[in-house]
Structure formats: structure tokens, C-alpha cells
Amino acid sequence: MTRKALIAGAGIGGLATAAALGQRGWDVTVYERHPELRVNGSGIYLWNNGLAVLSEIGAYERAMRNAFLASGVEQRDHLGNAMIPAELPPGARVVAVHRSDLHAGLTDAASRAGARIVTGTEVVEARADGSLFFASGDSAHGDVVIGADGAWSSVRNTLGLLLSQEQTREGALRTIVKATQAEMPEDSRGHCIECWNGQRRLLITPINDEEVYLALTCPATDNEGRDTAIQSCWKDSFPDWAFLLDRITGPVTWNVYSLVKCRTWSAGNACILGDAAHATTPNLGQGGGMAMQNGLALAAHLAAVDDRRDVPAALQTWEATMRPLVDHCQHWASLFGEIANIPNEVRSEIIPHLLANPWLAEQTSRGARSEIITQV
Question: Which of 33, 79, 227, 314 is exposed most, by the fewest CB atoms within 10 A?
Fold first, then answer.
């Protein structure tokens, strides 16, 4: 008998899960509230674990079509000096891509696996019996319901799974500018760069041969810094990068980060993943990777389920397997952001020693180095 999965949300986590379940024989329908599939104009980091998931579900080739393979992420202080060089441990990989390319690869993989993607359909309620209810008044029923509908998840909230949700004190302006590697300063080519000055940060991430993704992070109380018109204060804080800041002509979005913690990730035949379950700050570049990794692991745990009565136990085992790693990454991503609260001179002095410590390096890279689960 064909098992039926209903997924709320056609983002990174939802589409990866749809592809993985479809490849394991599940009948999958993905419901997206927007009238068309879309992504915001920004880049995203993918480390070993996320890249491995893309390979496993057959999304790698399309997602990586225009990707930037970085030699690492260099951390620079307020004077432009490198605190941490752009070096990767042996075997480590980090790739930066345009979100639209990643989304296209995941969409193709999900469609090839037989998943149906229904747009313009907003999920407003989920129930533990495997039911979804839509804003239109219609409903659907499956053997498993999966909420991948973001930090403000209706699935999570109507199931009563939320423990706490808070918005962080900082957020980021995000945009993409035109720039080639040849136009970058010679000591900046081939890698990504994060610059720190006071409580402001500037992340410079090439995402293909012609575009650079910029993330300008500051406290939400920094009214001048968070202005989407990009005031001259950013050029004052990061004068070496004025030539990129002057190229900002496209859309600029401001978002404050969310931190989501849940009592549990499932109730009966319904579960949540990605930002709906564990929204985090982006400081370790693991938001998308963890969402995809959890989706693949979920499919592996559900692969052998023939009777819907066995779904709740499979969901509980899946959470017990994956949650310790996710909680670890969420915790260390928040801690990493606290570097912004260290005075400039102190930061320049202590961060090179702190982040070069092997134990700390292991903590912050555990998610990137984690093994993906393809079967149980």
C-alpha cells in the first residue's frame, strides 16, 4: 500500500524531504502558500553535510551549476587584518550559491521523485492524526504530516509543540551586487570574508562568477545601520569595501533572526523540521544544511514504515537521533554571534587564539562534519 506524506512549505527543508520520501516510494504532496515558488535574493553557505544531502537526493548538479567553491571564510577585524585565515581543515568543503540555484535543484529533485507541488495553498492547521487544513476551508489527510513552513509555522503552533520563540537583538540587511573575482582585492580572491567593526559585521560572499552576496549585520536598535537605503555609515565602518557597497542597486531586505525551541518535534503522525523546529542564527552557515539533513534522516526513518500506526514511533526515534546535533549547532551559532559584543581592540587580540583552539574548532564545525543518515 502506498504511504502518503503531506508537507507544508516548499522551502529548502520541505523540498529536500519531498525528494527523499518520494525516492523511497512515498506519495508526496507539498503545499506552498505563495502563488509561485520563489526565493529571496541572497546567497547561502553549504558545508559537507548539506552537499552530501544534495548528492544523495540527486539535486547536486543543478544546485551547483553556478556555485562558488570557497577556500574558506576569513574573519577580519576593524582594521582589515585577518583574525582567522580562510583555511579549511583537511576534507572540509564550503560552497556558496545563489538561493535560487539551490531551490531549483531541490525542486527538480522533488519533481523527479514524483512529488506534487501545489502553490497558492496556505496551511492554517495541522492535527496529530495526519490532517492538514487550508485557508480555503479544504483539508487533506495523510499517513504523515510534515511542517516545513518556517519560523512562524502554523503546523507547529496548532500542534502545540512550541517551547519558546524569540527574535534576536540583531538582524541583517541582505542583497546581491555585481562583481567578479578579478574586481576583488587580490588578497580577497577565492574565499569569503566576514569583517567586524563594533557591533556591525559585513559578510562578503561570492556566489558565482558575476555576483557577490552581501549581508550587513547589526543590532535591531541600530536605526542608521538597518536602513535599507544603506546609509554611508556602512562605508564609514568598512571603507575597504565601499566599492561593493556603492554597487547596491537591487532589492535590500532587513530581517531579524528567530530562535525557535520546541518541546518535541512531533505529535502523533505529524512532525516539524527546519526553521519550524529549530530556527537559528546563521553564524555557522547550518540553517539550510540542517534542514536538508533532517529531511533526509526523516525519510530514512520512515522508509520501512508500512502501517501508519508505526509512524509516531518512527518520528520519535528520528528526533532522538537528530536533535542532539541540531541543539548543539543552534547553541554554538548563538555563541559565535556574541563576538560582536567584544570591543574592537580586545576582539583583535583574543579571537585569533580562541577560534584557533582545536576544541572550539570542533564545536563550531560539528554540524558541517556530521555524517548524513540515508538508511536506518
Answer: 79
Q: What are phi and psi of 20, to 5 degrees?
A: -65, -40
Q: How far apart are CA 261 and CA 10, in angstroms?
A: 22
Residue 41 above 80 pLDDT?
Answer: no
Q: Phi and psi of 227, rounded to 5°?
A: -65, 125
Distances (CA, A) of 149 to 126, 137, 190, 208: 11, 19, 35, 28
**Residue 375 main-chain phi, psi, to 5 deg:** -160, 160
Alpha-carbon gap, residue 170 to 244, rounded angstroms: 22
With the C-alpha atoms ordered 206, 208, 211, 213, is the resulting torsion angle positive or negative?
negative
pLDDT above 90 (res 89): no
d(CA 17, CA 290): 12
* Residue given cell 529531511 in the structure block: 295
Angle made by CA atoms 41, 46, 49, in degrees to the nearest 5: 150
Beta-bridge partner residues of 5? 28, 144
Total residue length of the chain? 376
For residue 372 the three cell numbers come to 548524513
Q: Copy the grid coordinates of residue 162.
A: 512550541
How far apart, in whole angstroms, are the C-alpha atoms of residue 186 and residue 188?
Answer: 5
* C-alpha cell belonging to residue 157: 503552533
pLDDT tens-digit profile of 323-370?
999 999 999 999 999 999 999 999 999 999 888 899 998 999 999 999
Residue 324 DSSP one-character state = H
Percent of the chain with pLDDT over 70: 99
The DSSP symbol for 216 reads E
Per-residue exposure over 308-344, b if at least 16 CB sit within 10 Å of its own CB, e if not? beebbebbeebbebbbebbeebbebbbebbebbebee
Joined grid coordinates for residue 72: 574558506
Q: How many CB atoms lie within 10 A of CB 189?
A: 13
Residue 22 CB-half CA count within 13 A = 26
Residue appearing with cell numbers 514524483: 114
